[in-house]
Write a structure and sequence with these properties.
- The structure is a homodimer of 343-residue chains.
- With 343 residues, chain A is of the alpha/beta class.
- Chain A is built from 13 helices and 12 strands.
- In chain A, helix 5 (81-96) links the parallel strand 1 and strand 2 (100-105).
- Chain B binds a DNA duplex (30 and 30 nucleotides) through helix 2 and helix 4.
Chain lengths: 343, 343
DNA sequence: GCCAATCCCGTAATCGATTACAGCTGCGTC
DNA sequence: GACGCAGCTGTAATCGATTACGGGATTGGC
């Protein structure tokens, strides 16, 4: 007399359902996965499922099917509006496709990013979207032998066989400079974020491009850099205003731009009359600031969408060739950069 | 000759490691989980693990141990700054404790919230933190028979045996009214969010409390409500200003307050000289707005922290009595509500 | 009436880990 | 020398699902 039923009070399994329906576990599984056609069986299984309150165990299912129904998104810090926009874009798309979203905040720690890639072969997700600050050789190495599909948002070395969504802020910044010059601005300052990152460098190069295109030279006293915070932006603006008289300030970030606005207000400089201000990322902050901020949109939302769609395509067809998508930055003009009124 | 090794190229399992180390699978598992003490065995297993590049399969592990190492957080919309603050608080605490964070955005859909609770018995997470807009009977029902520990952030009916972190905006709003009255304000308007929610109702009641305490009557034309958006706030402020002359506006949200600021600016009303403005949630927006917004903090970050800690306590000891924690709102005073200067 | 084809269904193997249980070894003690 | 005990270790059962395979029943064609 084998103990078929360990404890009748236990959680219902596929076996419980099978007994209640008077069929085999195989039939139950088939009905659950839509693989059989006999109406009568389907009905009985359905009823039994409802009666015993059965719900599939996801661990057991994952073990057998090798799929988890989960996708992870890894970025430096969800507090950053750009990453937040990506999450907002990614979440509904994955959800629509039946995936759950798992979040990794790496705190801008490279070792952490590598660890995330590495942990993929625990197979706790079916895919990953990652937005690294910098892509090191270690990254590439891990990317190439990742256990599950990965989509990278960011610049990837050429030839890296991984789906990729990229944007280069450089032309965006250059265009913003052109816009300022067109508006009659002559002394354009740059408040950059950390420079030892790929985006930081791009912004700086874009600034130089813009100046060159306008036939201007870089003046060291017009360039500052700081960390991404309102205070950082305010302080950097002070430093610049202490030694120069810019009539425009380009900030690497809307947060920095808001900081600059505060400093300008303190010094009784009118925006945009005395000084134009341009931010970057086109976040909610840009729209709600006063005056509303002109901002270089890096299309975070769109990049998130594209990345999510790329990942879904890859999951549907793992053998397709890696796809690289490039997104163009976009200058969103608002009041803070209106042209100087000719006297 | 049994096919012990299905395909030598396959992913390494505990069996692969056992062979490489010349021990049994049990020993491998013991070393991996720190259950044996023999130095020699430990060394050999460690080496074998490194050699074959073994990583535990999380599905298999979960199936056996009944634990997933995952926790979910469910809220209406991660775009809302209050929820974002919670995520930022929750994430590092869970991570520190070795849990991964899974995100559910329910889009303020009650059915979706119920579905999240229901899906818990797929056992894809070890616990859940949920922040429902409203708690219906269905919620309570599902909460009571949830398959895993749940912590609720929000108002819960008395006697519901679930860990809970709560805040009541009502006294916070009343205090803000008192602050405005102290500052010499006489006509205080309210721009509320959706009223058919628990928080919406609390805010309204707090408003009435505040008026009563100041010996004032409610005037219908000073109260508007709208959805949470800058435009909503701007429009609501217009409606009020069209029919009345408030010298203070209390908004249910920093976003709404920013909208009100825009309307006031358009009408050439000075803040705080002509009209004081108070927001709620004390988000980044309040600090960066101009003038900086006085705001009623609902301590979202702290609530997130508390909820995460409660969940960890519960996971460590499932039999402890449910704990209810109440957080007090806090008035953060900034320039937008400075006292009227006596002429 | 017989054989083949079709359609369902049940048995049992399997995914990759954990762990109860029993067996082995070596040592100390009486 | 026998026995007990401690400390490891290996075998095999187990978690809860999916699915390959083969067996029955039904039907149709000749």
């Amino acid at each position: 007399m084998p103990a078929q039923r360990p404890r009748p009070g236990g959680r219902p399994t596929v076996r419980t359902v099978a007994e209640a329906a008077g069929v085999s576990v195989a039939s139950v599984s088939r009905v659950l996965n839509g693989l059989t056609t006999n109406e009568e069986t389907i009905r009985r299984v359905r009823e039994a499922v409802a009666k015993v309150g059965y719900v599939q165990d996801s661990a057991a299912r994952s073990l057998k099917t090798r799929q988890t129904g989960q996708v992870a998104f890894a970025m430096a810090d969800i507090g950053n509006a750009a990453y937040l926009a990506m999450v907002r874009a990614i979440q509904p798309i994955l959800r629509e496709a039946g995936y759950r979203l798992l979040l990794h905040s790496t705190d801008a720690d490279i070792a952490d990013e590598i660890e995330v890639l590495r942990s993929l072969n625990q197979r706790y997700v079916d895919g990953l979207i990652i937005c690294p600050l910098r892509v090191t050789e270690r990254h590439v190495e891990e990317l190439e032998q990742a256990a599950t599909p990965v989509v990278v948002i960011g610049q990837l070395p050429a030839g890296c066989p991984v789906d990729n969504v990229r944007i280069d802020s450089r032309p965006g910044v250059a265009r913003a400079i052109a816009h300022l010059v067109d508006g009659g601005r002559r002394q354009i300052a740059l408040i950059n974020g950390p420079v030892d990152t790929v985006p930081g460098r791009s912004r700086y190069l874009g600034y130089l491009d813009g100046l060159r295109a306008a036939g201007k030279e870089e003046r060291r006293e017009l360039v500052a850099f700081t960390d991404f915070s309102v205070e950082g932006g305010a302080k950097a603006a002070q430093e610049i205003l202490d030694v120069a008289e810019p009539d425009a300030i380009l900030a690497a970030n809307d947060i920095l731009a808001v900081g600059a606005l505060q400093t300008l207000r303190q010094r009784n400089l009118k925006v945009p009359d005395d000084v134009a201000v341009v931010g970057m990322d086109d976040t909610e902050l840009a729209a709600t600031a006063w005056p509303p901020l002109t901002s270089i949109s890096l299309r975070a939302y769109e990049r998130g969408q594209l990345a999510a769609r790329l990942l879904l395509k890859r999951l549907a067809d793992p053998d397709r060739a890696p796809e690289w998508v490039t997104v163009e930055p976009q200058l969103v003009v608002r009041a803070s950069s209106a042209a100087v009124t000719t006297p």
